[in-house]
Design brief:
This is Zf-HC2 domain-containing protein. It comes from Kitasatospora putterlickiae. Keywords: Membrane, Transmembrane, Transmembrane helix. This protein is an all-alpha fold. It has 2 domains: 82 residues, no CATH class; 191 residues, no CATH class. Helices cover 66% and strands 0% of the residues. The longest helix is centred in the middle third of the chain and has 26 residues. It starts with 8 loop residues before the first helix and ends in a 12-residue tail after the last helix.
Amino acid sequence: MSGTEHASARLIDGYARLTPGPGPGPDPALDPDPDPAFDLTADEVWALEAHLETCRTCRDRLAAAVADGAPAVGALTEAVWADLAPRLAAVAPAPPRRRLIARLATWTTPAMTPWLAMVLAVTLLALLLDLTGPGSGRISLVLLLAPVLPVAGVAVSWSRGLDPAHELTTATPRAGLPLVLRRTVAVLAVVIPALLAAGWATGLTAAQWLLPCLACTSATLALGGLIGMTRAAVALTAVWAAAVAAPTLAAGRTPALLRADGLPLWCALLALGAAVVLARRGAYTAQAGTR
């Protein structure tokens, strides 16, 4: 079910007959004459709830279906709202600063702040070493570190151990790939401007560091759908350090992979990673894929 199409009548009517319990299915007390044609699977319930959050038309259809087909559910809902309305009216609206923090919380987690600060500190240190190092022919540490700098932030943004609200977040209908991508964008929004400034100061072209940066980020997301974001980030960083960083520092020259000759390879890796992420988008909904 995409954001541009509406839920079918079977889904709406079936969901109207649901009641909280151990699993989807009508409650005999609320629906004394259940119809198997309206039974919904857990995946259908999950997809419909995610769709209802963004589709007013389907919410209105659901309200009408509840009123017509399950009056007991409608009566229960009205009773709950009658009890909550005075309490909600007594709650003062949140100040603008708290509303801003609440919006930012949908893009970041508390654990991301120190990690992003560390990434910025590493970028600044690499820039200082580049600017104070030897003359022509030197290896740019900014260029060498750029591909893996956002990887740590991506891992922390979707980590079970570092996010205290991870269990609650992954249990919501809208969790999964959209939330993973949103938090990844938040990481890149911090890392890319820092690298842009560092690249300008050291004379690097944007394509030299931006394509490897985005390619490694997409590779982390693609691998994270299989083994978890944290493990994917650790594995990718270790491979980069052993296969690229260490040989480059030992040889004392920039490898072809990080020169203009390597840009087509990075484009291909970026496209491949994005394709894998889209093909396996369902893997990011399961908590097993977000370890």
